[in-house]
Amino acid sequence: MLAKRIIPCLDVKDGRTVKGVNFVDLRDAGDPVELAWQYSQQGADELVFLDITATHEGRKTTIDLVKSVAKQVNIPFTIGGGINELRDAEILLNSGADKISINSAAVRNRQLIDDLAKTFGSQFVVVAVDTRFVEGVNYVHLRGGREKTDIHTEEWIKEAESRGAGEILLTSMDHDGTKNGFDNPLLGQINKLIHIPLIASGGAGNEQHFVDVFQQSNVDAALAASVFHYGEILIPELKEILRTEGIAVR
Amino acid sequence: MIGIVNYGAGNIFSLTAALDRIQVGYGMINNKEDFDQFDRVIIPGVGHAGAAMSKLNESGLVETILSLQKPVLGICVGMQLLTSYSEEGDSELLSVFPLKTLHFKNRVTLKVPHMGWNSVKAEADCPLFKDIPEDTYFYFVHSFFIEHNPVYTGATCNYGIDYSAAIQKDNFYGVQFHPEKSGVHGEQLLINFTKI
What is the pLDDT of residues B79-124, one digit of tens each? Predict the structure, then answer.
């Protein structure tokens, strides 16, 4: 059986985690490498690092971070943020990243998906999509959901797949931060449209939300941040609950 | 010491990192004289099998690889290169194994690539899986698979179809998944290879 994946997401800036982290046995809560290692030990299936570093100097720190994670952590990880051209992706690949995630850069320059897939393979290219429901229609949003585009989410995701995306990370901005559960109807609908893996994001508040998203939308993976960072959901317990519900987990 | 065949197909950072974690020494094999320095050999590889085969041909290492008596482990595309043929690029390969590498598309209705952690059933006689529990999950990322074979399959994976997660023949071994990304059990598999 292919297991459903549980993916903690870490926001990093200048090589440090930015959102608060509340782990009992963590020596340095701001150290993404230690946090990543902890998650891998707990049974996380994969990790996503979202780099919000703005400066050029800071990007060098990000490269060092990627190298450190690749050296110390024995599960796959994705890095997103600040990837605008092939060169950015190549540096990350050579530093040990398993996948890169592109969001607004792909919307601005759609050819980037084709170029990345052709150069590094589809398995390396995650297209992240932020969506919001506006007057009956799902629209792609940029800049963390603040900027609406005229692009329909369903069409954009299908286009990303046809251009060579290996995976879609879909965040519902309507659900993100609410802790009321994932947007299962939308995720289920999108999942039926595509033939590449779909990662659900936005809305996780408790263990049952993970059960629901897998059972109701059949996505391949579910991603969350704060519920893991604050210890509100422990991955070993979450896996046990999913297993009890008949969901294949590692 | 493990020699890693350095023929330019994909990045080997993750593999060397894993070998560092399990404290196994390694070096790069760039030309045929280098093989003598190592007691076993890993052929890594990601990306397109046809393109990888072209690079391996250009490296001038093929003849030596085929003559090796020491343990050889192909990983992912490095494993596929050991078969006779791949549908990816309609490519003739090394033919260590009389097996074919086939595309999932049109054979399974599941999503392609096969990406994520899948459980694996190892044959009792496959030394790569020593001290690894039954039905352990390993990390896979691939669109092409090696057909299942009662003689050469060392471990079976099911993804809509049974196929070879691991193959073995004499001193040649291959794994379709990425042991370097498969947690502690993946590291155990690499340790096992150093003891074959």
Answer: 999 999 999 999 999 999 999 999 999 899 999 999 999 999 999 9
A30 touches chain B (CB under 8 A): no
A144 falls in which pLDDT band (50, 70, 90)? confident
Q: Which CATH superfamily is domain A5-244 in?
A: Aldolase class I (3.20.20.70)
Structure tokens belonging to residue A45:
């299936």
- Hey, what are A177's tokens? 């931060």
Residue B103 catalytic? no
Does residue B113 have a cis bond before it (omega within 30 degrees)? yes
Helices (H) and strands (E) in chain B, counts: 5, 13
* Cβ-based neighbours of A240, under 8 Å, separated by 6 or more: none
Residue whose entry in the numeric block shows the structure tokens 């085969």: B53
What is the chain B residue with the closest CA to A45? B117
Sign of the dihedral defined by the CA atoms of residues B59, B60, B63, B67, in that order:
negative
CATH for the stretch B2-195 = 3.40.50.880
Decide: residue A234, CB within 10 A, 0-12 exposed, 13-18 middle, 19+ buried: middle
Please tell me the predicted confidence (pLDDT) of residue B46.
82
Alpha-carbon A53 to chain mean position: 17
The full set of domain ranges for chain A reads 5-244
Of A131, A193, A203, the residue nearest A165 (C-alpha): A193
A98 touches chain B (CB under 8 A): yes
For the cut 90, the answer to whether the pLDDT of residue A57 exceeds it is: no
Separation CA A212–CA A27 (nearest Å): 34
Take residue B146 and report the two structure tokens written for it.
């090696």
Is A11 annotated in the active site? yes
How many angstroms away from the CA of A135 is the closest CA of chain B? 32
Residue A110 DSSP SS3? coil
Between CA A69 and CA B190 the distance in angstroms is: 19
Tokens 């590498």 -> residue: B101
Helix (H) or strand (E) holding A41: helix A32-42
Which helix (H) or strand (E) segment holds residue A60: the answer is helix A56-72
Q: Do A96 and B48 touch (CB under 8 A)?
A: no
Please list the ranges in chain B whose pLDDT falls under 70. 10
Q: Domain map of chain B by residue range?
A: 2-195
Query: With contact defined as beta carbons under 8 Å apart, do B52 and B28 qualify?
Result: no
DSSP string over A94-105: HTT-SEEEESHH
Q: Give me Rg for the CA atoms of chain B.
A: 15
Strand pairing partners for A139? A132, A152
